[in-house]
Specification:
Blueprint (H helix, E strand, L loop, with lengths): L1 H27 L8 H5 L16 E2 L1 H11 L1 H4 L34 H11 L10 H14 L9 E2 L22
Antiparallel strand pairs: 1-2
Helix pairs in contact: 3-6, 5-6
Length: 178
């Protein structure tokens, strides 16, 4: 009986203590705050295959070469050959059973995805540090390395979404679903 009372008291004390701690914690924790429209606009960076979401600007592969050599070649090599499979940008063959390799030229379905990825995530050591002009220029250079655009072809919000990617039919997107 003595042990039962001790256990009952200890359980009751533990339950009450837990309730007080939870109540206190809920009052003190103030997670998050409302985001402003200006802050939200910084995240609205999606360049879509339809051509919506692209910023103003333009660039050619000729212009992008220097930026690529200075900001991208450390990981991707001077000609997009990469330092590992994860950093290769040119060549590749997704249909190869032995060595499928995902590159811009063999895997990516839309040029807008290339632009969007560069804009959001590159260079890896300083994401979002390229200007919109530089992003167009680097995207043009990467597309040029893959033989998809001419070296002097201007890439902008109108022309870049029109670049036909070799693996464009390799994915199912919203337009394929009824």
């Amino acid at each position: 009986m003595y042990t039962f009372r001790r256990m009952l008291k200890a359980s009751t004390l533990a339950a009450c203590s837990a309730a007080v701690l939870v109540s206190t914690a809920q009052e003190q924790v103030k997670l998050g705050q409302a985001i402003t429209e200006v802050s939200l606009a910084e995240f609205n960076l999606i360049a879509e295959p339809s051509g919506t979401g692209f910023p103003a600007g333009s660039g050619t592969a000729q212009q992008g070469r220097t930026i690529f050599e200075n900001r991208c070649a450390l990981c991707h090599g001077s000609n997009g050959e990469g330092n590992s499979d994860a950093t290769v940008l040119v060549g590749g063959n997704m249909q190869s059973a032995e060595t499928p390799l995902r590159t811009v030229g063999s895997y990516w379905p839309y040029a807008s995805t290339v632009f969007d990825f560069i804009r959001r995530a590159m260079p890896a050591n300083a994401p979002k540090s390229l200007t919109d002009e530089e992003t167009y220029q680097v995207a043009a250079y990467v597309l040029y390395l893959n033989g998809l655009v001419a070296e002097d072809e201007i890439m902008n919000a109108q022309t870049l979404p029109q670049v036909r990617m070799p693996n464009a039919e390799g994915f199912i997107d919203r337009s394929h679903i009824q």
